Amino acid sequence: MPELEKIKVGALETNCYIVGKEGKALVIDPGDEGKKIKEMLSQRKWELEYIINTHGHADHIGANSDLKDGGAEILIHPDDAGMLTNPEENLSQFTGGPVLTGPPADSFLNEGNWNWKGEAIKIIHTPGHTPGGICLLWGGWLFSGDTLFAGGVGRTDLPGGNMNALVDSIRGKLFVLDKEIRVFPGHGPETTIGFEVENNPFI
Ligand SMILES: [Zn+2]
Ligand SMILES: [Zn+2]
Asked: Is-contact 80 55, C-beta < 8 A?
């Protein structure tokens, strides 16, 4: 069984998730504080294999370079890949933090199935917050990035944002999932699909 750790990182309190299995790990959205993430990895004795970015904003990719030191591969949807190396697109140029100019993606996550250590992980392309935003459906867990929050949705007023696309993504691809699925968003507390279908005021 995979095990899940959550660490809040950076000024925007991005939720960085670490999933470990059999001594290996992948990190979802290491937005900042690489040192804290590395400490967790060594505490759990997990070797990092993959860095997955749900999208290319600075607050989700800020520690990519720190974590890549050990040889982990960076995966992102192709439509957001350019943001990894472009400080104007990843918004790091405007947020007062370090200007992020890489490293680039090692490989891409398109919609469909992606397998890691016998785990079938479904990549769901959910454009709207950014063009290449993805959610990861992993058994009963959904990592929703900045697409869906507890009682909220990602903002669509940033470059590449599109409210209609976001609503379509959430209605068409997330709200059709099992109600019991636990949702782990890019910011804020966890929720469930069922709770959001009933209560999310934006959809
Ligand atoms: Zn974002
Ligand atoms: Zn964010």
From this structure: yes
